[in-house]
User: Fold these one by one.
Assistant:
Number 1:
Amino acid sequence: MQTVTSHTSQRGVMTTSQQDTAEKAAQLLAQIAETRSRQAFSELFSHFAPKLQAYGTRQFGNEQTAMDLVQETMTNVWHKAHLFKADKGSPSTWIFTIARNIRFDLLRKNKKRKDDISADELWPILAEQNDNLDDDYALDQDILLQEISHYYGQLPDAQRIVVEKIYVEGKSQQEVSDSLGIPLGTVKSRTRLALKKLKELIVEHD
Amino acid sequence: MIKSHPSEAILYQYASGDLSASMTLVVGTHIDMCPICKRTVCEIEEDLCNKHLDSLVETICAPSKGAMSKTQCDQMLEAIFNSQAKPAAQREDLISLEGRRFNLPTTLAHNAHRIGEWTHLVGKLWRAPVDLSDDGQTNLIYMEPGAQVPEHTHKGQEATLVIDGVFNDEHDAYYDGDFILLDADRKHTPRTATEDCLTLATLDAPLFFTSGISRLLNPFSSLFFR
Ligand SMILES: [Zn+2]
């Protein structure tokens, strides 16, 4: 009974200290993002550099490559701190995924291929715009571009403008939402209505 | 509703960075489309971080041998502060083919510049290569309604992801987001019915056509799905 209690409380302490560390690290990242504080970065560095070095050494079995991993990972942390989102996970997990990407690149480096794929393309975790707002991957609903141009003039203005921007100017639904200042859902529903109407028009005239 | 997902073992290798580039692309694109696998991968990344980084909490106070010296730390900090940020990643959210336009999931959007020209294959099949400078062969395959890929087996593994639409083989029907992994020697005949289908497929060895006249295609199989 006593052992169980002490074991539980020990775990409790561990978790709290890990949580404290996470909160502290999140604060430092916010400071780096907002004020480019070198002081805050140095503090974060002294916490994570030894961990990254140990990870690198185990992965590569090579001191120099391990140091490259530390430097490249922490360079990304310095420049991309604003991309850390506290609601999406802990700071150390975020830093780990950056290190995972750097490891991937370092492992492929010796292949020396021109235009080789980089981990940033495969795991775009450091992309500025990374939200996948659209869950519908087909835009055309079987209607050919040429056919649309004949008929879209007959649509109500609100729908016609959306259709013009998407099918004539080649904008994405998100871009149309941004440029017209209307919600993405409205763009989608206007597109859907317009396409339905177009289909009817095309069938009528066929 | 996506019903066909990568195994947990594959997701684990994806999160660890141990899959090939082409498989990482296909699995990553599935994850963009699949909230369930996205959550699983987040959990796996937390576990990996625990194992690789956080577990060192105790040893940090007592520096091990080989740890960075104060001078090394200062030099590295200096280099980091003097470094330039990498240019923002390029992405392209749309591709078009024959008047059809598709919105690309995030991971694929970041590789859009690697997508080559569309070429018309036999029948109602189109192909655009995705150049990952990798050993596998990765392609976008577009099947018009009523298309059929000749029956074939693979020497290696084939992973297919439905980006949009639906296709069938003799085992099942596959919709948006479904991830299908076929091992060597499993015969299948993908086909579309009334809907068209855009898939992303990667193959780590050439296809072998097994039925009737399409056996004649074998010498060209590397051309066919390269
Ligand atoms: Zn999934």
Number 2:
Amino acid sequence: MKTIMLTVNGEAYELAVAPNDMLLDVIRDKLDLTGAKKGCDTGACGACTVIMDGEPILSCMTLAVRCHGREITTIEGLAPRGELHPLQQAAIDHNAVQCGFCTPGWLLSAKALLDGNPHPSQEEVRTAIAGNLCRCTGYKKIEDAISAVAGRNQGVVKGKNRD
Amino acid sequence: MANTDLDSVEQYDAIGTSPDRSDAKSKATGRAVFIEDMHFRGMLYGKVLRSKFAHARILSIDTARAEKMPGVRGVVTGADIPVLHGEALKDDCFLARDKVRYRGEGVAAVAAVDEETAEEALSLIDVCYEELPAVFDPEEAIKPEAPLIHEQLGAYRHAPGIEPISGTNICNYFHLEKGDVDKGFAEADLIIEDKFTTGMQQHCTLETHCGICLIDDDNRLTLWATNDSPYRTRKEIADALKIPQINVRVICAPYIGGNFGGKGGLKAEAAAIALAWKIRNKPIRVLFTREEEFTSAIVRHPSVIYLKTGVKKDGAITARAVRMYFATGAYAEKGPTITRFGGVSGAGPYNIPNVKIEASCVYTNRQLSGAMRGYSGPQAAWAYESHMDNVACKLGIDPLEFRLRHVYTDGDTHASGQEIYSEGLKECLEKIGERMEWGKKSLGRNRGKGVACMERAVKTPFGSAAFVKVNEDGTVDLLSSTTEVGQGADTVLCQIVAEELGVPFDWVKKATPDTSTTPYDTSTTSSRSTFHMGNAAKAAAADAKGQILKLAAELLKTNADDLAIKGGNVYLKDNGGSSLSIAQVLGKHFGHSATVLGRGFYYPHLEVPVEYFSTHMIFWLLGAHGVEVEVNRQTGEVKILKVYAAMDVGKALHPSNCTAQLEGGVSMGLGFALYENFIFRGGDFLNPSLLDYKIPTALEMPEIEPIIVECAHEEGPYGAKGIGETTNVSLPPALANAIYDAVGVRIHELPITPEKILYALKQVSEKKTQQRADADPATVGNPFGGKK
Ligand code: FES
Ligand code: FES
């Protein structure tokens, strides 16, 4: 066991972790933040995506001991006081959620994208979520939601874009 | 039976609008609870030891070392639970007994204090096998000399209408005839024959399978599951363990992370039950890894389909014969009913006077095939729709025109003998034709357009029940065992209750399915929920409303008939001004202890005898796809320019959820069409991971134009039918037809890889060179010798 310091969603934690503990298991099992999902545990699906120091990472492929001193945002940190992040609101408005298992993952990929690039192109949006598999939606409504927040589709952002 | 008098959108408050999905917020905030988030005090973790052989006799299993390992709470083998389960055919064991029939089959399971310990203990179990000859191809498996996979086939219990052939590997044979095919073929000017095959696709739900089972000393079993159908599961368990249904409680996880047919029956549940059967009074969880999803859950049936069609020179179809083989893997799973449905729809949604269909469900030594989005629809449509284009091409008739000429319409007779009604398929095809500017706009060199359509039966006749519980404040709990698997059932059912009862949509909440509280439902499958459970919920809401109006009539000293409810308030129909809230009506009668319970049940009654999986349906799922492609002749790569997706939904209760299904279906159909497939080398399975088995990402998705067709069904709630199951079905043949239009090659085997296209292009050019040498080019490809 090794002790690490982690800041998760603004809160500081001191945690004892085994050298082979993955960040995903630590945040789910030790911190009870279950929004990050385990879809494959091999870095192939993106359901476990969290943001570490501004970058989206696959927490199932990240050793917890290597996160010492890092700052992490999980889906629970996106709406800390019950107020929805614009991306979460857009996900609802654009009907971009079906089974919901992939949703936290792509929302965090999208947040990391928009934080660094507020006006991404359609292609940049697609590339940013290319690592987040979704078997339900066909991605169209997900792209619409992200693009709406990116402000490119003026007018759509405010109202609902339902066909 | 098409109902043209149904009310228009304007008259509804909740129906035909697209309110926010009731589950969207909890899912977008990460608060939604899935089974992997559930934890119980004292819970043990189970892991399964899996067979490394495709077919082998189990000579011995030694679990002694594993049992002694610290942290291990028990080890179970097939001998501990020597019973069989299954849906239509009871041939499956909880853990293998005597022999293993596929690579990946569970042989033993360990329960331990954590997953790592359980996993480690597996390596301490010694199994001695004697390898047996295996068979993988369905056409090989039906040969008399093929190794027999189930020696006891003739002794298995099965549902009526299922015909296993003892002493063979055929676990169901389905046969259907209409008219006289021999006569039909004799009348034909031309007979066209084709063979098509499909690969092995997996659901790849983002959430893997999981079951948590607790069995106490009194044989009372509780199963928490990520399962699509709690009642069907309860029956399967109670039947297998020979305990009363009341002692089996199946509770669904609040949310299920995708289904597509994959989460029915006993998958991870089987191992959890086997462990709990031996290790009592402890909840035991078995959660599949992604690899187990590929090796040991279920897949879509690989198939081999032969079609033969007789036509007149003028394009009239005189006969069609279809022979289908569905490879069901080592155990029947839903194969028998899949074969039945595939058989019923084998000739396609066409008006053909003489039809003969034979469909066989064949055991092989592979992982189990079962229900997957479309059931056997995608295999059947891949064959009959690729074939339709072939036939049209041979006749020199435009393929869309050929379809429009033959597609059945109301009053026609289906191959099953049932009269067609409420049919919106022609409109789907016409709309696609219009949007694609079919026959008008050419796309240019190496580009092409293709169209395909499909039919798929909704499982009939099966019932659904619902309770509507009106609370003291007028809010409403909907008790229904339909599971929310991502399709939006919770939302649409709440819309129906809100509409019928006259309360705002957000006053209604659907309960999590639990066989001890939510009433009976057959299954959340087959796109049956909106129609069947929708009807039950509507009836339950109407029942509750009737009770409330009666109570209000007493208070208002009037007749219940003169009252209505809107926005949660009861008012006089003539004088909308004076009103009482539902809470006031209940409060004035019952003080603080008010409640009203409405009951609803729906069961489709048909004019044919009741049968398990009837060949006559309460409705048909009907739809079509149009695809525009560009093919790279150098690399064989296919670029999809645009997809048009149309479905006849009867009535779009939540239009945005309909387009969501159409878009999702395109991605699943596209994966099946272009690359999703299991790769085997003999008994070895080479790509059991999402890294090696690719499903579409955002980058692969083309532009999609969803088209909703509404041909109302008079028995459907507000005219609705269903949608989700079949939005992938006709995409692969539409794509293949577009490829043919673009570069003139016909692909017969799914998936359509660049290699297959290159190979076919090469063959075409060789053939052309040959033909140029000895024929007049104007007649090439036209068997009647006329100019095309
Ligand atoms: S769980 Fe981490 S990528 Fe799939
Ligand atoms: S919504 Fe189900 S996987 Fe994306």
